[in-house]
Amino acid sequence: MSGKAKNTIQPDWISKTLAGVLLGFALCIAISGLFAWLTPGGPAAPQKSQATMWITMPVWGAALSFVYLFRSGAQAWRWLGGATVLAYALLAACRHFLQ
Known about the structure:
0% strand, mainly alpha
């Protein structure tokens, strides 16, 4: 019985929503920065700023949508926090090595 309870999705929607809003936003900003650095021309390419700006909303929306699939709010914070730290580490590496 306790094993079955572990596998269910817990309805702690406040913690999951906060993780999706706060960490999802930080993650989407990092991903838009990676988009700017890793696509041809780098961040200084002409007319890339609009695409970089518009990529944030789908990524943030996806993070907000999928955050409710985590089993608990703590798991959502851990996974989104880890993904955010990894994305910012990649962004820092891109800024260091691709200049």
